[in-house]
Design goal:
The complex is a heterodimer of chains A (about 525) and B (about 140).
Chain A: H1 11-25, E1 30-31, H2 34-39, E2 56-58, H3 63-76, E3 80-83, E4 102-105, E5 112-116, E6 121-124, H4 130-140, E7 144-145, H5 156-161, H6 173-176, E8 177-183, E9 189-191, E10 225-232, E11 234-235, E12 239-247, H7 253-266, E13 273-276, H8 279-282, H9 288-291, H10 300-309, E14 315-323, H11 325-340, E15 348-353, E16 383-388, E17 391-393, H12 396-412, E18 419-423, E19 427-437, H13 441-460, H14 473-479, H15 482-498
Parallel strand pairs in A: 2-4, 3-4
Antiparallel strand pairs in A: 1-2, 5-6, 6-10, 7-11, 8-9, 8-10, 12-14, 12-15, 13-18, 16-19, 17-19, 18-19
Helix pairs in contact in A: 1-3, 7-12, 12-13
Chain B: H1 48-60, H2 65-76, H3 94-103, H4 118-129
The chains are: A alpha+beta (about 525), B mainly alpha (about 140).
Chain lengths: ~525, ~140
């Protein structure tokens, strides 16, 4: 990828900044060739990855190096785009929102600093991936489990800071963060919570500050660079029981939600309950042409044929219980009775007990995997995906409304329908997966139009997204419109106060520093 | 919600799925990766097998995403499913490995020099390419 300089930075000044970075991290960890810029591009970019080009990347190995880089960036007015491991696939990978930003790649900061089985927490640096933490837990035989997202290739901290979600009782990953260390935009260093006191042993145990609590102000944020964090982990349970039902009809999602939500809120169900539609089960079995060889969306009659052929319901619900066997048995009876009121078919029941091997690829047992990314093979070619992910109240009324609205818009754009709902408590995350071939310009163009239509119509109905791709960060921020966009105005005020040069992640989540606010429309879809 | 969660679909057995067109052979248990070898990652002489496991093993050990997709491709080409594992391949060249790692291929994104340094890539590329073909000599 050709070089795009940061705004208002000349070639000599840019070169001097890179040399200064190299003075901190060593020349081998400043990456500025065309090939490097390609490697930091958005691997799943809808259209050209050159729409969100990095100018270079720099990879520090310690918090002191991060502080030095941030100070140099201020000196040369070179904006930084921090990434933990840069595997935010589907949302922009490692690419920056603003063209010419230097990626601050924290992948070398990959130490597991603490692993405490007694109080069930870890302290990790941003470069620690889910696989790394999992393998270290196994090596130490620590009685702890992870909560993993679909893509375990990524960073534990990065995923939590991006509000990623997993499928265990610890599935709301941002909530597991407790006590962080962050380099501020002027190079200062902050520790939150009890960590604000030197050597306080409760740093990663008590989740609030004395005074305002800032931990999550550093999530989906451009207010600092998180360099370490405490992470609460699940104590390994004695047993786990999985109850699975195939749910026959599309409309059945209503009663499923109204059955699961109260059990989740009451604590009978601890985990985040993931409910994928039929395509989620087909997509890993082959490529699209194996099932439907036309470019048009798969018609209803073909869907019905496939469900019959593969003995699938329209939806699948798997509820996993964790803990002592007697407790799990009692909870299972409550859940089965609730389902029986709507569905005659019994649950498929699978027990896991301490000492049993974990079934491969079971994300709800905390085993990391990148296999779900296989879905990019579905459309053929250089497959990729975008996810449209609004949050709705976890009731049948809201879920059915959302389902029908997005289903119609997706059908109007002649795209296959693949949705999931994950019940995280009082809310459900609806992910509509839109898969496309990166090299098919017409398909990419259609996806962008579809994505815009989904954002607009869903916002009109009163709902917003919880996370989105670089190209839509501003459009989604626009939908948060209470009191003339008070959220964005507040974010901008804080940003300008803490980061007058706008050095850290300009444009992240639609928050632009005044230094670059005029560039907001560039790279926005 | 993570939008990659599709694989949950794999978790519970569905009898008819074995007959699916792209059906992957039975999934092996989770495989631990080697720890990242100590020492300067920019210098030559990295332990190639450990680097391969650590940095490529997310996807290219048994049961990984890359192994699954390659297994499917190999079977479609009438080659043995075991060729889906890069460590079993006899037809790779060092230059090809380097090109794929830095350029990406299909579902695989390009790897940065933090993912795999040039010294590490040189070691891994030589390691994957060194195995002789069935009749001896490199293929």
């Amino acid at each position: 990828m050709k070089l795009t300089l940061p705004p208002r930075v000349g070639p000599q000044s840019f070169d001097a900044a890179l040399k200064a970075f190299a003075g901190v991290v060593g020349a081998g960890w400043v990456m500025s060739s065309d090939a490097d810029r390609d490697a930091y591009a958005d691997a799943y970019a809808p259209g050209s990855p050159e729409r969100w080009p990095a100018s270079a990347a720099v990879a520090p190995a310690s918090v002191e190096e991060v502080r030095a880089i941030v100070r140099i960036a201020n000196e040369y007015k070179v904006p930084l785009w921090p990434v933990a491991r840069g595997k935010n696939l589907g949302y922009g990978t490692a690419a920056p929102r603003m063209a010419g930003s230097v990626v601050l790649d924290l992948g070398r900061m990959n130490r597991i600093l603490e692993l405490d089985p007694k109080l069930a927490y870890a302290v990790v640096e941003p470069g620690v991936g889910f696989f790394d933490l999992h393998d270290e837990v196994e090596r130490q035989k620590a009685p702890l489990w992870l909560s993993v997202p679909g893509n375990g290739w990524g960073s534990v901290i990065g995923n939590a800071l991006e509000h990623g979600i997993g499928y265990t009782p610890y599935g709301l990953h941002a909530r597991n963060l407790c006590g962080i260390e962050a380099v501020l935009p002027d190079g200062d260093l902050l520790r939150t919570g009890m960590g604000a006191m030197k050597d306080n042993p409760a740093w990663h145990l008590f989740p609030m500050n004395y005074g305002p609590t800032w931990d999550l102000a550093f999530s989906q944020s451009n207010l600092g660079v998180v360099t370490k964090a405490g992470l609460w982990m699940q104590p390994a349970p004695e047993t786990s029981l999985e109850l699975t039902w195939d749910i026959p009809e599309e409309e059945d999602i209503g009663w499923v939600i109204d059955t699961v939500t109260p059990l989740k809120i009451a604590g009978v169900i601890d985990q985040n309950v993931f409910i994928p539609s039929w395509l989620g089960k087909i997509v890993v079995l082959g490529t699209r042409k194996d099932f439907w060889d036309k470019p048009t969306a798969m018609p209803e009659w073909r869907v019905k044929e496939l469900l019959k052929q593969y003995q699938l319901g329209y939806w699948r619900v798997s509820i996993r219980l964790y803990g002592d066997e007697s407790v799990n048995k009692a909870k299972a009876e409550v859940i089965k009775a609730a389902f029986k009121r709507h569905l005659a078919a019994p649950a498929m029941e699978v027990w896991w007990r301490q000492g049993d091997p974990k079934p491969p690829l079971d994300l709800a047992l905390g085993t990391p995997s990148a296999v779900p990314l296989q879905m990019s093979d579905w459309v053929g070619g250089r497959g990729a995906h975008l996810g449209f992910s609004p949050v709705v109240p976890a009731t049948s009324e809201h879920v059915m409304g959302q389902l029908k609205r997005s289903r119609k818009i997706i059908a109007d754009h002649d795209v296959d329908f693949y949705a999931s709902f994950t019940i995280g408590g009082r809310f459900a995350n609806n992910v509509n997966m839109l898969m496309y071939d990166r090299d098919n310009a017409a398909q990419v163009d259609n996806m962008k139009k579809l994505f815009n239509a989904l954002i607009t119509e869903t916002a009109k109905a009163g709902y917003g997204e919880y996370r989105t791709h670089l190209g839509w960060m501003d459009r989604v921020m626009d939908t948060f419109d209470f009191n003339d966009h008070a959220l964005r105005r507040f974010g901008e005020k804080v940003k300008d106060a803490l980061d007058p040069n706008g050095i850290i992640a300009p444009g992240k989540q639609g928050i632009w520093p005044s230094a670059y606010r005029a560039l907001q429309k560039e790279g926005a879809e | 919600m993570s939008r990659f969660l599709i694989a949950l679909a794999l978790l519970a057995p569905i009898p008819a799925m074995a007959a699916a067109p792209g059906g992957v052979p039975e999934l092996p248990p989770y495989q631990m990766r080697a720890a990242q070898p100590a020492g300067d990652r920019l210098q030559p002489g990295r332990d190639p097998k450990a680097v391969f496991e650590h940095s490529c093993g997310y996807c290219h050990l048994a049961g990984g995403m890359g192994s699954n997709l390659l297994t499917k491709q190999m079977m479609m080409m009438k080659r043995p499913p075991s060729d889906g594992l890069l460590a079993n391949r006899r037809d790779l060249t060092a230059d090809y490995v380097k090109a794929v790692v830095r350029g990406g291929k299909g579902a695989m994104p390009a790897q940065t020099r933090v993912d795999l340094t040039d010294a590490e890539l040189n070691a891994v590329a030589a390691y994957l390419a060194q195995k002789p073909g069935p009749k001896g000599g490199k293929k």
